[in-house]
Amino acid sequence: MLGSDVVPQLFFLILTLTLPFSAAYHVGVNYGTVANNLPPPHQVVNFIKTKTNINHVKIFDTNPDILAAFSGSTEISLTVTIPNSDILSLSKLPNARSWLSNHLLPFLPTTSISYIAVGNEVIATSDKTLITHLLPAMESLTLALHLANVTGILVSTPHSLGILSGSSEPPSSGKFRNGYDKAIFTPILDFHNRTKSPFMVNPYPYFGSGPETLNYALFNSNDYVFVDPVTKMNYTNMFDAQLDAVYSAMKRIGYGDVDIVVAETGWPSAGEPNQTGVGLDYAAAYNGNLIKHVNSGKGTPLMPNRVFETYIFSLFNENLKSSVSEQNFGLFKPDFTQVYDVGIMKTNKVCLD
To answer: Mind telling me the catalytic residues?
Structure first.
């Protein structure tokens, strides 16, 4: 259970749900399907549309049944994902054009697609072939979209925070790993700058926290405030610190103006026996406070008033994941009941302070 200082804040979040959600709702979900008990896509889409305030959904493939299910749901924007195994092939324009024709064009424009995510955490694989072909694949897909006269779809790729140097603390000292800044991230960020596409990152305070920083990771700022000794700015949560470290790394090589999208973040509601910092209260505190924080429009200390499109991992608990904690990142059970309440149902209202 959470300490006495955490639980009141959770109740405060619930009790101060006073202002209705609006079109400015910036939190979406990752709709993963590593499970054998999930409802069919058309039921999932109907649930999202009629019962929740979710208007951004990221999927980890281009499943035609899911894309077809979202047809006509123009109020919900999709991010589709290309598997890492396809990156090498799609670095060649003819293959990119063929992929687009086969996987996306049949569903446009009735299915609203905002982003194509090329692979997932490719840099973290340390696969030199994948890494060297990542940007060419992004370029090829962008050109393929242009040649097909498709507008409104941007190309990006999500990165783990392993792209940062181990010395990226405090946030103002954030930098990309040695040798990766000029060789990999300068050209990638130049691509984002040219195409106005976002830099996607997967910050997980869950993985970065310990017993002494747990409340800091959960946005419970009363117990732990980190002061950046360089900027003298106060950090009341780890999420902001992680994003500002990414921003500092981007700014350091001249691309601080590129938009950032949080492609994944979340917290498990259950874990292995005796696993610390895992449970319903922790997950509800993190995701509930995250939603409130993102939708407040406050931004971060280094990026004030910037809004980050943020995708919670994940929509459902997925029973075929490899560990108990990985199976329990979902906001919902497969029968659509909430694992815990974070205020995203249409009947909820939220105070955006």
So the answer is: 121, 264
